[in-house]
């Protein structure tokens, strides 16, 4: 008994389609995994500020959205913005990568992880920030103009 050439052609076509679909799915999975590894959480954060950590007597007020040294020569300390009031940012500086969600309701001098907060004046630093009204909780800071995640235009200090 001879095989039907039309039936064999359909089987080959079906097999090719299956292989193509599996290949596309694997490619999308690999691309997704690669983007998760290369674009870590710190690369995407828009609430990170580095500030002078020389102590209360220092008046250099160095702030940056990138790691580096302050004008005093000391390493800037990592922090993330908990809240912006006017041009003043309230920072949590407990541990790099911290993502606590705000101020302690019982003690507003501490963040939710229990660390004392640091207040820094962004005025005159050239940092752009969201101040979408009164006491902003968007916490977006940038070294260049743009839009906040709430849709407002970032304001330059």
* Helix/strand class: alpha+beta
Count of DSSP helices? Answer: 2
User: What is the total number of structural domains?
Assistant: 2
Helix content: 10-25%
Outline: elongated
- List how many beta strands DSSP finds: 9
Strand content: 15-25%
Give the mean pLDDT.
81
Q: From the structure provided, what is the oligomeric state, counting identical versus distinct chains?
A: single chain
Main beta sheet, described? Answer: 6 strands, antiparallel
Instruction: Write the element-wise H/E pattern from the N-terminal end onward.
Output: HHEEEEEEEEE
Identify low-pLDDT runs. Answer: 29-42
Distance between the termini: 85 Å
Rg (C-alpha, Å): 26 Å
Explain what this protein looks like in three dimensions.
The protein is of the alpha+beta class. It has two domains: 1-38; 42-157, no CATH class. Helix content is 24%, strand content 20%. It has two helices and nine strands. The strands form two sheets. Strands 1, 2, 3, 4, 5 and 7 form a six-stranded antiparallel β-sheet that branches. A hairpin with a 2-residue loop joins strand 3 (77-85) and strand 4. Residues 29-42 have low confidence and may be disordered.
């Amino acid at each position: 008994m001879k095989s039907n050439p039309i039936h064999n052609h359909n089987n080959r076509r079906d097999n090719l389609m299956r292989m193509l679909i599996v290949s596309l799915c694997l490619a999308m999975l690999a691309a997704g995994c690669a983007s998760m590894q290369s674009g870590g959480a710190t690369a995407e954060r828009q609430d990170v500020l580095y500030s002078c950590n020389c102590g209360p007597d220092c008046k250099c007020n160095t702030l940056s959205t990138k790691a580096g040294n302050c004008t005093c020569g000391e390493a800037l300390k990592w922090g993330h913005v908990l809240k912006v009031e006017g041009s003043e940012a309230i920072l949590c500086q407990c541990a790099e990568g911290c993502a606590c969600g705000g101020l302690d309701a019982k003690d507003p001098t501490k963040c939710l992880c229990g660390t004392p907060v640091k207040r820094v004046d962004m005025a005159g630093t050239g940092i752009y920030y969201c101040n979408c009204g009164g006491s902003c909780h968007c916490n977006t800071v940038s070294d260049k103009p743009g839009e906040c995640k709430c849709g407002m235009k970032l304001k330059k200090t």
